[in-house]
Amino acid sequence: MRKAPVSGLRPWIIQRFTAIYLFFFFLFLLVYFIFFPPASYEAWKDAMSGTVVIVATSVFFLALFAHAWIGLRDVIMDYVKPLPLRMTALALLAFGLIGMAAWVMHILFAAGG
Amino acid sequence: MQRPVFFNVLQIQLPVGAITSVTHRISGILLAIGVPFSIYLLDLSLDGPGGYQRAGELLHSLPVRCLAILFAWALGHHLLAGVRHLLSDIDIGSSLPAARRSAWIINCTSPWFAVIAAVALL
To answer: What tens digit of pLDDT does each residue of A74-85 get?
Structure first.
């Protein structure tokens, strides 16, 4: 039985599709905070409690963490050669990103509730 | 196999595209470091009127404004260099002269994001 070759195609595609979403979300953020900055806590809380905003922001952060994982994973694999060190660095990165994802989802769902 | 390695940073002549590539990487690492701080600010700003005010004060403090200038460069450069990558993937501007030209344009444009941020924030 032939083993499937290690492919870089999937991360390559994920990196590009997340990039496109991130690009448009950052444009939106820029326009929002420059031209329509929230005037008060109530306005900000209100803006962050809509379903569309929460879903779009959740997708943004998931895309961001996937994008950061692939980018930083590549950086670690390029410069950290000893295997134990490399595995430790990759594990720390993965736990860090998953932890931040849980944190931000908690914030966003609390804002919606 | 041991091969001779030439790595004198002062003598290596990097092509302009390599500078765009290295700074794409550096700005990406920088942006990733900024993520937990941004989440912290988001958390604080939604945690009651007091937290919202504290988040505003933090954003307006001098060290954070100085960091914001650096991040304006990092984000601007990373986005432009990323768009260059995406266009290159669909064969727009992927010939050597065009790629060199776009690399020059990005390397020279991205510091202006920092300048604009500095004017706006200081």
So the answer is: 999 999 999 999
